[in-house]
Amino acid sequence: MVGILVHGDNHFIVRGPLPDQEIALALVQHWSLIQIGTTTPPLLDRWHIVSREFRENLEWAVVVPGDRETSAAVAKLLAELSARGIIIHRID
What we know:
By secondary structure, the protein is of the alpha/beta class. The protein has helices at residues 21-32, 72-83, and strands spanning 2-7, 10-15, 48-49, 58-64, 88-90.
């Protein structure tokens, strides 16, 4: 499965199952800071960032609040996903 994980004005295209709230927060924390030489915690091994994917292949979306607003392009993509019937999971 492939989805989008949105954190404020940042987003990640992710290969893996729909993460629950705990995992989504952990992924955002893990991927938002560059940590040279660290390994991915075993709890997060099922998810990987992908650099290219067709938007038609996105199957899930999770939005985690951040310090900045979601970009217009990502907001448009989320609207397209919602119109396709994909539930946009929002974490408060």
